[in-house]
Amino acid sequence: MKILFAADEFPYSGVALKMAAGLAMNTWSDITLMGVVPSVADKPATQSSIAGALEQYRETFYELCSHEDSPFKLDRVLWEWIPMQDGAWEQIKVFRGAHKDVRILLRFGQPAMEILKEARNLQSDLIVLGSTSGDRCLWSEAADTPQKVVASAESSVLLVKEDMAVKRIVVCIDDVPIGQEALEMINQMIVIHGASLVLIGLTKEGGTKPAVYQRMIEVGDYYADRGIHVESRTAEISELETLISQETREDMLTLSMSKKSVLGMLFSREWVERFVSACKSSVLVLR
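^ that's the sequence the OP posted. Answer follows.
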């Protein structure tokens, strides 16, 4: 799996880093830590506050992923030739991870646009980013970045709103099968948080398609076989926003927004932006 961790220099990004590190370590994923520098800046990019934050995030990442079996454990010392500006080459000592390395990247421009562009370039499977908590969903210096990324990304997005234990992973189910990668991503959320699972079958005008019940049974059995506590219930699609507003900050809401899913077909990007802002909890959007 390829993970893109998109960050600014504020505390909520540090909270999201913990989640990105746990996912990367458990799944042996490739991970890129990226920040965005404004196109017009008063100092070189490498001296910017976001560059300093990325360096700290890198150190924190290695602290979180330093145990003996970690694929990121720094235990390879290599000598590598590096080109210099005057055409010369210099050999320097480089520390590499046991199996995986962390890539650090600075881009220039508008944050949401650059994050989406890099996600496409990387062909990332998951974007992880933080935001302000509660019923707000902002970045301090580029307010609408989280909403824009969640609404417009082609890949799945994990938006982390709270530095607190998640007790329940709440997954909305329609009649479209959930792929193996999505099932595993949900499983990782359950494992990382030690959470239980709640499945909500989405109904329309009082009726539930047989396929929705079938999907709920299949997904429920998948996790029950792994020793995970599973609860199931149904909810009207028309009442989804009300349901979202009632979920607590100790839940993580998971929605499938693929092009074939009911939610992906029914709701616009503007609805997704509004939903992300209204949701009190962290959100995982699967695509």
